[in-house]
């Protein structure tokens, strides 16, 4: 049987901790629909601007989201499509239609 490298397990654990926060998970669920601005995320999540900005910054540092400037706006999107797969799997388990 193949060994799983401890550093890979630790990295996966840190990634799961990063998405385990309610607001960050909510943001990622909405970003599955496509890129969104901070204003759009504020409206859809109902979060306070400072709280959302803090979490978006942390999500950028952790590599969960990335940004792209669109005119005067910055759009956020899921940085790695595999995170989209993870979020979709969680939605299938916890948010069945």
TrEMBL record:
GO terms for molecular function: DNA binding; DNA-binding transcription factor activity. Residues 4-97 form the HTH arsR-type domain. SUPFAM superfamilies: Winged helix' DNA-binding domain. Keywords: DNA-binding, Transcription, Transcription regulation. It holds the Pfam family HTH_5. This is HTH arsR-type domain-containing protein. It comes from hydrothermal vent metagenome.
């Amino acid at each position: 049987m193949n060994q799983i490298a401890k550093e890979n397990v630790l990295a996966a654990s840190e990634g799961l901790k990063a998405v385990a926060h309610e607001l960050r998970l909510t943001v990622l669920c909405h970003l599955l629909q496509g890129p969104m601005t901070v204003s759009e995320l504020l409206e859809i999540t109902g979060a306070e601007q400072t709280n959302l900005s803090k979490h978006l910054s942390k999500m950028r540092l952790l590599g969960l989201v990335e940004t792209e400037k669109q005119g005067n706006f910055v759009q956020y999107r899921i940085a790695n499509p595999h995170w989209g797969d993870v979020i979709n799997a969680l939605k299938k388990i916890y948010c069945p239609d």
